[in-house]
Amino acid sequence: MQHSGAQGAHPGFGAQWPVPAPSPGGLAAGGFSPHPPHAQAPPPHPPQPQPQPQPQPQPQPPAPGQSPGPGRGAAPQPPHPPQQPPHQPPLQPSAPPQPQAQPQPHPQQPLPAQPQSAPAPPAGAPAQPGGSMPPAEATGHVRLGPGAPVEIPAPDATPAQLDATRAAVAVLLIGPAGAGKTTVARYWADHRAVPTSHISLDDVREWVRSGFSDPQTGWNENSEAQYRLARRTCGFAARNFLANGISCILDDAVFPDWPVIGLGGWKRHVGPGLIPVVLLPGLDIVLERNAQRSGNRRLADEEVAHIHGRMAGWYSSGLPIIDNSRQDIASTAQMLDNVVARSLASPVSW
């Protein structure tokens, strides 16, 4: 009874219970040896001083009904407490966090992985400081307009669109070898007020180094295939230049009576808005200029005369023709400007 009273006198102070000296008499009474296990049991209970206030309100109601258990409602609980009390204290502190954990909207807030999708726009994030630029610009690449067929000027075209010196146009300069196509085209492109490119089909044809099929050695399947490939490449380049605001002038020896090397392929690859212009000086001028050439660009006089004769068929085609027999390069380029202006105002049907 004194032992139980001692426990009642010092409830919840199992670690301090052996410390007070007044009780050793009762401890020596023979009840101390059984209690050391209880003195060892308290060490797990020192973490219990915090949960003890909670078991105290529980034993108070059952204390009247459980008189044999003086003040420690844990007496009926010992079968369970040896396992539960050490576990219950962590469970009880964990219980208060559970009501705090009940605000599960917080786990639901992380659930919106949309903020995680927001990192996906970091590519767009650099675009925002730079302005409303699309993600392509954020990578440092310039967005280019897709190449499209060059169209004929619309009836309601603005004066700027019809200005031959400033409008974005695609011109095809046609003529025999020695007519001065490449020289005039390059000069015209150099002296325009707006960005203008020059593409020579002969130059593109000679991109093929090993296996180049020279038409001078004879026209065959290989030379025709390489010519078609070069023409399609020129048309693709012209369309892309025009789509991005850069005019283009091309030059080629197109024959009026030879569909393989005719206007049909150029119209197909560039578009109906292509402006064909024939540059056709006299035969004596052509022979003189051809003699100044070298390499595979120089043709035999007989071949030059044959080509020049076939080019005469353009006179009946309705295409604009410039005779630059007595014109220098600058005046020929000025005549080309005038032809382009008329073609923009009144497109030629071809």
Automatic annotation (TrEMBL):
Tree of life domain: Bacteria
InterPro entries: P-loop_NTPase (IPR027417)
Residue stretches of biased makeup (Low complexity): 125-136
UniProt region (Disordered), positions on chain: 1-156
Gene3D superfamilies: P-loop containing nucleotide triphosphate hydrolases
Biased composition (Pro residues): 34-67, 76-124
Any Pfam family: AAA_33
Protein name per Swiss-Prot or TrEMBL: ATP-binding protein
Provenance organism: Streptomyces diacarni
